[in-house]
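Incident review: delayed structure delivery

Summary: a single-chain prediction request sat in the queue longer than the usual turnaround. Root cause was a stuck worker, restarted by the on-call engineer. No data loss occurred. The affected request and its eventual output are reproduced below so the record is complete for anyone auditing the incident later.

Affected input:
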Amino acid sequence: MPSIYFENLSQAILFEAELKGQISDGMWENARPMNHYVIPCRAKVFIDAKNPRSSNIGNKSYNFSSKDLLDCVGDRMLDYAKVGKILDGTDLSIEAAAFVAEYWKPILKAYQGTEVTDYLKQMFSKWIPEYRITHKIVKMISDQFDSVDYTEKDMKKDLNRMKKIWKNQ
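Output delivered after worker restart:
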């Protein structure tokens, strides 16, 4: 099974919440070979700060810190990585952390009762209970988000490390 062991939760969230999608149907959707995305998008993601590595993900290389990519979705990616810094040390799974990194703002509005769309109702009925995303977790993100000490420069360092981890098979 393809697997990637990143150094920290922010890297794992960046991969799960943004880069998998960019590989399959975003920045690199027309890359060659045509099925290049299949193996990386099936990769199981782990965190191992002492021994980051990848296994069985193929030899396709992606420039995760590409200027074109960051110009397009860099702000969103920075938000995801900041949430990773906040959630580091919680007992959420990587998948749950990536989910809440993407959706914490509308989830918070729903918990506050200010915005409940059909999509949010679907999230509350399936994903939020499955991932154990509580109001406390979303409020923690909201309370700490603006004070997280993580910049675009930090994110670029993480993305460049991720490229090296990708090649470390």
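Verification: The mean pLDDT is 90.
Action items: add queue-age alerting; document worker restart procedure.
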